[in-house]
Amino acid sequence: MNWRQIPLGPLQTNCYLYTNGNKECLIIDPGGEAQKLTSIIQQQHLKPLAILLTHAHFDHIGAVDEIRNEWKIPVYVHKNEKDWLTNPSLNGSEYFMAGKIKASEPDHLIKDEGMIEIGNFKLRVFETPGHSPGSVSYYDIQSGIVFSGDALFAGSIGRTDLPGGNHETLLKSIHEKLLTLPEETLVLSGHGPDTTIELEMEGNPFLNGF
């Protein structure tokens, strides 16, 4: 499997193209700039299979409908945020001078932790709330990669001052779900550079003393 990080939208949210050897791909968090993302997918001759959302804040969903409609692919989001795509007050766009960003309802609701299989992609879903109530992380045990959304960043953690956020819940999620992964696991976050579980265990100042 190969991955490409593409910062998109007003907050330069990391979108990821996760690609297999058949040039099929999963699109994780298409946050905006649909035309740019579409051009990259076409230039690489990729075949998108699905859109996976780590959560449904406005900066992660801005290109959802255009990408979904272009390739006729389903959108996955956690059940706790099933109404966020259609509601600018829930997804936060109403409060961030970003315009009222919304998308159509999701096609699939993630109801529990466990495995999801799309084509030959097999990802384990971890519920990692705290930044938002429906935040999830997607872990590929074979590739040693976790897409952590806005839960865990290189040297930082997600903000918890938005509706539905909770600092203690986020720290619990990180410690119980992410830091228990193998130390060499590559962490692909919603913003900023990639990191590893080992680096965050050793040096992330927000995780000390929990």
From TrEMBL:
Pfam families in alphabetical order: Lactamase_B
Domain spans labelled Metallo-beta-lactamase: 12-191
Keyword Metal-binding on entry: yes
Cross-referenced CDD domains: metallo-hydrolase-like_MBL-fold
Cofactor list: Zn(2+)
Keyword terms: Hydrolase, Metal-binding, Zinc
Highest taxon, organism lineage: Bacteria
SUPFAM superfamilies on file: Metallo-hydrolase/oxidoreductase
PANTHER family linked to this entry: HYDROXYACYLGLUTATHIONE HYDROLASE GLOC
Protein name (record): Glyoxylase-like metal-dependent hydrolase (Beta-lactamase superfamily II)
The organism of origin for this protein: Metabacillus niabensis
Lineage, top ranks: Bacteria, Bacillati, Bacillota, Bacilli, Bacillales
